[in-house]
Amino acid sequence: MRVAVICHRHHIGGHQGHIYDALARRFPLTRVVVEETGWPQRLADLPGGGEFDAIVWRVKLKLLRDQPPFDWQSYRGLRVMLDHDLYRNYPGLWPRSVNYHGAWPPVIQRQGFDLVLVSGKRVCELLRDEGVPAIWMPKAYEAGWLFDKGTQRRGLAYYGSLYSAREAMLDHLDRSPIAVHRFTCPESALNDKLNHYLGVVICNMGMLRGGSGRTTPASEAMLKNFEVAAAGTAPICDPAPDLADLGFVDGLTAVVYTTFEDLVDRLHGYLEQPELLRAIGRRAAALVSERHSWDHRVAFLERLLTQPDPASSEVSWDLSSAPALSK
Hints:
alpha/beta, five-stranded parallel sheet, Rossmann fold, 2 domains, 12 helices, 33% helix, 327 residues
């Protein structure tokens, strides 16, 4: 089964490119980088004249929106769009992206995609209600890159971009006071860093709404949930619509807080019993190892490609257990 990916250069390296690495392990993969090859307009613009079983587009919406419809001609393979930003289509999930509210469905229809892979369960539900052939395929982690080293751990940490809701969370912790070490590091050093800590605090929720001090509920489980768990560190996160379906259960494979005040109370309790956090981290690592690597996602995609109707609900919601990885 031959697959082509049309993407931007910045998607090739680092965590953005891990899904392509997994695709290349599973299929003969052709990467078409639009900054280097130009924007393809027709099958003839692709290597081999577009003789692929599936063509996956992962490009910026504002560029895809401005381009004329791709000329699929007599192409018989699967036309796939992969997008992790589709939550911005809905004001209730991301109120600040006014220019993108409602923007995705018309582009998807105009470009003629058979299948749209989205990383959030709630976003998938909303799209399907609009008649968009969406499939929920959550984010994941790269196996072998993150793992539990079994070394001594202590304390709590935070890493990643500081959206306003995350700044508010950390400010609240600073006033508690609970020590949370904030770190930055190159991707190659992330596993070593995470293995220093018992738990990492994650904020799945969105931006603060203006000056109201209120936050937007999380639209999906962020990538950090998988990264932190893979390293054997306890994910300490707020709820997201897909969290339980992914296997992140409070007190078992995660610590799930509802408010910043609840977060402080929960952390005080767990820091008095650090062995509980360590046990949660171990179980979280086992969970993602069994279900949530990029290889699992690509195996799921392969199952979709073999279905006569890949956008059917029977296929799209079957993520309760990971498909086999054997070829």
